[in-house]
Specification:
The protein has 3 helices and 2 strands; from the N terminus they run βαααβ. By secondary structure, it is mainly alpha-helical. A two-stranded antiparallel sheet has the order 1-2. The chain is elongated, with a radius of gyration of 25 Å. 4% of the residues are buried.
Length: 122
């Protein structure tokens, strides 16, 4: 069977991708910031008063800063990625309208015993 994807719904993809991207990016950025904070604390304690470490002493890594910073950064990155994704979807819909969409061929299984329908006792 041959299928052709002629149009992609912009709103449905953007709704799902916005929620998934916001969740994944916020959680990922929070863990990344926690790792960086731990590394900065380790560098600060191990090197002490060595040169170039003065910058790490002025950074406040409390949980509220990390939590809200990761949410706001995740929201910004999500908006950028969703904007780029919406442009790609719009250009694909224009391309598919005039030239044709992606064609997908799905073959049926050779062995019909894989799909059993009806009465199983026969």
């Amino acid at each position: 069977m041959l299928y052709e994807i002629k149009q992609v719904s912009l709103t449905s993809i953007l709704k799902v991708s916005f929620l998934v991207l916001l969740t994944v990016l916020s959680i990922g950025l929070m863990f990344f910031t926690l790792i960086i904070a731990r590394m900065a604390d380790f560098i600060n304690t191990s090197l002490g008063e060595a040169g170039g470490v003065e910058l790490l002493q002025n950074i406040d890594f409390n949980f509220t800063t990390i939590f809200f910073g990761s949410i706001f950064n995740g929201l910004f990155l999500t908006c950028v990625i969703v904007f780029i994704l919406s442009l790609v979807i719009i250009f694909y819909n224009i391309y598919a309208k005039y030239i044709g969409g992606i064609k997908i061929e799905i073959e049926r299984p050779i062995n019909n015993n894989l799909v059993k329908t009806g009465n199983q006792n026969e």
